[in-house]
Amino acid sequence: MDSTSGAPAFAKGFERIRVLWPDHLGLARGKYVPAGMAARGARHCTGTWALGFDRQMTPGTPGSFFFEGLPDMDARFSPGTVRPGWEGPGTGVVVADLEREGQPVAVSPRGALRRAIADWEALGYRPEVGIELEAYLMEPDGAGGWQPISTPGAFVYGTGPSVDPHGIVGELWDAADRAGIAIEAINSEYDESQFEFTLAHTDALEAADRTFLFKQMARELATRHGLLWTFLGKPVNDRGGSGLHVNVSFTAPDGGNAVDDPSDPDGLSPLARRAAAGLLAHHQGLCGLVAPTVTAYRRLRPGQLAGYWANWGHDHRGATVRIPPERGAAARLEHRLADGAAPAHVAVAAVLQAARLGVVDELELGPPETGDGFEHVDATVGCPTNLGAALDALEADGALCDAVGKELVQQHLAVKRTEWDAFCAYTTDWEKRAYLPFL
Question: Residue span of the signal peptide, if any (predicted)?
């Protein structure tokens, strides 16, 4: 205990702790609690797992205890994981695990990632992850909506005021430093008002936690300027999509990088090849988890360099599993299918489990992609055409469902099928413009 304040030692210097946890929609749920009471954690209603973005609840959703009175669950955390936040020196922030009646909550995304890490560790390997995120910076359009900020002097790999007239990149970097979120690079992406954020490679749970916190921090800092960061896969019709790339490596028992093999002509170990084969074998099922919105399937199209095809290649951005040119300690597999609307913990867990299935099933990796990714492609298997088809593909992939967590997947399917049904029943503005004048 801190003898001067009566607060637990881990809370010294903070007036309050912001206890956050990732939900199934990628939202940062949580509560502020006084620092002196933070060791108790925080309670939340299990009915949260039945919610969609529109706050409608899907009755009977697994994990919600919808028909059992919507009881509480507990957000718990280790004292050593509290870090400085971005709201001021008095507020610490922490990413919590969820328990109910002393047991882990089966539908928790962070719990699913913990299980994936444990499954890899049972094979003798520690997974490490680096995340690359893309996002658009938006401003009000004057009609109640949002439009990309205007940066007529912007260009790909741009830095400075020509691409960031609000100076928000510097604010993000400073806030991330204070919160212990290591950034490797920030730059403008291909399209105007689009940016790429490369977060440092670290152990898988910390990588997902950092990504989760970074997204929340970015959106909140933008709000102070009256702006909006969106991590949707395809938020703007006339511009490119935004991805979430999961870079994966595995530390072997001897401390070496288990992806690297200097004796192999391609520099890849048998483990790396089987892991890549697993990602391709479960490509369509993965879509239902890592591309979880209607909008995602406007990005996942042929010729978009967005992870559409079940293929792999050496330093090939037209391949879903890209093998970057670095070898040795930096060797890794880059999985390019997900977008930032996916909960980071779910995306990492799903990628790790699909890769692990390739290892345990001893899958053989086929030849690399030789096409250009635009006019010519060797691959024949692509993504499902829409969210509904992707959810069907996920449910049909029993091995992936079991690996990620059967109850989590069933909860995800229940809420997302409600979302898909609502979209299908909705008459869009495009339909009104296209049909009403004539029919």
Answer: none
Is the pLDDT at 3 greater than 60? The verdict is no
- Whole-number CA gyration radius for the chain: 22
| Dihedral over Cα of 349, 352, 354, 359: its sign | negative
3-state SS class at 361: coil
Q: Which domains, and CATH codes, for the chain?
A: 9-101 (3.10.20.70), 115-429 (3.30.590.10)
Q: Please, what is the angle between helix 283-290 and helix 406-424, to 10°?
A: 70
Degrees to nearest 5, angle at CA 186 with 343 and 250: 55
**Residue 405 CB partners (closer than 8 Å, separation 6+):** 106, 107, 111, 112, 115
Please state whether the predicted TM-score (pTM) of the whole model is above 0.90. yes
Confidence band, pLDDT 50/70/90 cuts, at residue 88: confident
339-356 tens-digit pLDDT: 999 999 999 999 999 999
Nearest to 76 by CA among 118, 133, 30, 125: 30
Q: Which two tokens mark 10?
A: 């881990």
Cα angle: 167, vertex 336, 151; to 5 degrees: 25
C-alpha–C-alpha distance, residues 218 and 383, integer Å: 30
Euclidean distance between CA atoms 308 and 384, whole angstroms: 9
Cβ neighbours of residue 412 closer than 8 Å, sequence gap 6 or more: 24, 288, 289, 292, 346, 394
